[in-house]
Task: inverse folding
């Protein structure tokens, strides 16, 4: 038998992955990974669009790293397929690696070399040399905030510094697609803000497509255009935070109101407004949290609150709608899949 003996199978697989919107830089069809009896990734259909920041969100063991390894051709799928920058990673892993920046969950560098030397090594592997490479290395070091320590050996780096060097390393080849496994793990709070700002800039200014995994809801919420909620190897919801809120939310809108110090208790007046289903004062900052159902009544209820506050001499200082947190959504989504078959949602 010739080398083409197994081609028809491959081709069928390709056709399945190349759907109608086949321009998406990352897409998977029924991508599956089994480890013995355990299914780490279960028939994943994912599409990350050009120029967006997509967050793969899930708890420990959800299958995030396994998915990323399959996208990079670092582990072989048990079923289904993927296309990354148009390539099948299990057939063209080197080419995918050349074109996609990757930050692994545990970065490794040559400890006896400096940060700059490590980046120079990566640059050379990617065909970048000489003055151009040096200028570029300087730029990425600055971008990740590592200029000061660039000439120290990496075995003297803290974990956060190694993580930053890992991001710099992923940026060296100026990729169109960046895949980051827990990019802010072990980075301090100020550093997290800097890194997230950097990723946002790369997406906005350079049109880079970013896929990142995280279990940190607030970070994903602050930076991602869309998120995929991953649980037990399955994608249980994809969309903007607002879309997921509608899908998994409690059907209520949430308003926050504040009043001047010493104002009378507004709760009775607020509760009397049709559509208001709950009023509670947040002891932390004194904000009144007002739940409205249905959520579509929120504009009308806001107008009524302004009117009621005026009529009752309650001097309101602010009134705004609060986006549901991804954490609320995540909990609701996890509950939705945990619900036994046949049980009907309330
Ligand atoms: N090499 C392996 N051999 C056997 N099982 C594995 C292997 N790698 C991962 N798994 C299993 O696959 C599942 C998914 O693991 P994965 O590392 O993809 O999760 P994750 O979402 O990245 O979790 P974390 O947030 O902890 O990084 C887990 O149950 C894990 O134990
Ligand atoms: Mg992981």
Result:
């Amino acid at each position: 038998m010739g080398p083409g003996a197994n081609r028809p199978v491959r081709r069928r697989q390709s056709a399945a992955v190349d759907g109608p919107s086949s321009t998406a830089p990352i897409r998977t069809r029924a991508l599956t990974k089994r480890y013995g009896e355990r299914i780490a990734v279960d028939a994943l259909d994912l599409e990350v669009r050009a120029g967006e920041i997509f967050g793969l969100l899930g708890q420990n063991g959800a299958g995030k790293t396994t998915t990323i390894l399959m996208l990079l051709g670092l582990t072989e799928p048990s079923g289904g397929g993927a296309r990354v920058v148009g390539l099948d990673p299990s057939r063209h892993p080197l080419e995918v690696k050349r074109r996609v920046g990757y930050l692994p969950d545990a970065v490794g560098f040559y400890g006896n070399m400096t940060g700059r030397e490590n980046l120079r090594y990566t640059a050379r592997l990617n065909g970048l040399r000489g003055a151009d490479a040096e200028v570029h290395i300087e730029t990425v070091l600055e971008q990740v905030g590592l200029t000061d320590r660039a000439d120290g050996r990496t075995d003297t780096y803290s974990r956060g510094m190694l993580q930053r060097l890992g991001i710099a390393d992923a940026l060296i080849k100026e990729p169109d697609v960046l895949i980051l496994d827990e990019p802010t793990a072990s980075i301090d709070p100020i550093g997290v803000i800097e890194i997230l700002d950097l990723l946002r800039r790369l997406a906005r200014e350079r049109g880079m497509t970013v896929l990142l995994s995280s279990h940190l809801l607030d970070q994903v919420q602050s930076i991602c255009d869309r998120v995929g909620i991953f649980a037990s190897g399955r994608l249980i919801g994809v969309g903007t935070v607002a879309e997921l809120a509608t899908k998994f939310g409690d059907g209520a809108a949430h308003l926050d109101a504040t009043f001047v110090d010493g104002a009378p208790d507004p709760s009775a007046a607020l509760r009397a407004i049709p559509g208001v289903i709950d009023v509670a004062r947040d002891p932390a900052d004194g904000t009144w949290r007002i739940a409205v159902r249905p959520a579509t009544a929120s504009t009308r209820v806001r107008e009524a609150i302004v009117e009621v506050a005026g009529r009752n001499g309650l001097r309101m200082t602010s009134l705004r709608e609060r986006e549901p947190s991804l954490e609320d959504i995540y909990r609701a989504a996890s509950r939705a899949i945990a619900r036994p078959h046949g049980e009907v949602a309330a």
User: Anything to note?
Assistant: Confidence is low (pLDDT under 50) at residues 1-15, 340-346. The first strand starts at residue 26 and ends at 35. The pocket of magnesium ion (ligand 2) is lined by residues 64-65, 105, 181 (CB under 6 Å).
